[in-house]
Amino acid sequence: MLNVLPVKKENFNEVYPLFEQIPTPAPLAKERWRNLFNRQWDCQVEPLGYVLMNANEIAGYIGLITVERKIHEQRHRITGLTSWTVNKQYGGHAIKLIFPFIRDQERTLTCFTPAKSVDAVFRRFGFQELNAFLQVIPFWVMPVGQKDYQISFDIEQHRPILTKGDWQIYCDHRQFASEHFILKNGKTYCYVVAKRILKKRLPFLHIHYISDKEQFREGIQKFVAMICYRTKTLGLIIFDSYLGYKKVTGAIRIKMPDKPLFRSPTLPAEDVDSLYSEFFVLDF
C-alpha cells in the first residue's frame, strides 16, 4: 500500500537517485539537492516536502519551500513546489504527492517551473498564470533614466535607510550566489535582488525582487550597462508581474514557454515573487 508522508532529513540518500530524473538547467551537485532537506531561512517552516512510500521503499518525492513573510503589513504563508519526481514504475501514482499541496486553501501556492504535463492538472485546481511574459533589458539600452537617480552595490552601507523587511531579505539571501543593488532618488530607494543565470548558454541577470516597481521603471535604464559590466551579463531578465505588467522603456517582451503558476486567497500576482524559492535553494 502506498502512503504519502512528510519527508525527513534522513530520507535524503534514498531520495537522491530520484533527482537524476529531473531535468535541470545544468547538472546539480549532490550537496545542492541536500539543501531541500534543511531549513535555509529562519522564516521557513515545515514540512519540507513529502515522500511516496511503498512499505519501506521511497517511490517518489516532492519538495516544498514554505516561508512566512510580511507583505503590505500583513503576514502571509507562501509555499513553493519543487522537484516533483517519482520512480518510473510508480508513475501512475505521482498525483498522490501533490494532493497535500493543492488541497491547501489558506496559503499562497506557487510553482515556478511547472512541467507541461502537469500544467493542466494545476489549472483544474484553480491555479493561474503568474507570468506569461518576461521583460529583457539588454545592456545596450539607452540610458534614459532620471538624472537624479544613483546606484549603490553596498547594501550594508545603506542599512539605515532600508526597511526592516528589506534588511531581512538581504540577510537571508547574501549567503547564496546573488547580486544586490539599490537605486536611490533623494530619500527614497528601490532595493533589488538578482541572480546570474545562463539562458541558452548566454549570461543574464535574473531579477527576483524589486522593492519599488515605479522607482525601478523610472531609474533602471541609466544603470543597465554598468550592472551588466559588473556582473558580466548581457542584460536583465524580469518577470512581467514584478513590474506591474508595465513595460520598461527599451525592454524586449518575450512570451514564456513554461508559465509559472500560482493560487492565492490573499495576494495578487504582482505581490508574489521568487525570493524564497528553488532558484536560490538549488541555485538555478
What's a concise summary of this model?
This protein has 284 residues and is of the alpha+beta class. Helices cover 19% and strands 34% of the residues.
Any descriptors?
2 domains, eight-stranded mixed beta sheet, 34% strand, Aminopeptidase, alpha+beta, seven-stranded mixed beta sheet, single chain, 8 helices, 284 residues
Under CATH, the topology of the largest domain can be stated as: Aminopeptidase
The total of helices stands at 8
Give the overall pLDDT as a whole number: 91
Radius of gyration: 20 Å
Strand content: 25-35%
Helix content: 10-25%
Terminal residue distance: 35 Å
CATH architecture of the largest domain: 3-Layer(aba) Sandwich
CATH class assignment of the largest domain: Alpha Beta
What ranges have pLDDT less than 50 throughout 5 or more consecutive residues?
none
Order of helices and strands: EHHEEEEHEHEEEHEEEHHEEEH
Tell me the overall shape. elongated
| Whole-number count of domains | 2
Biggest beta sheet summary: 8 strands, mixed
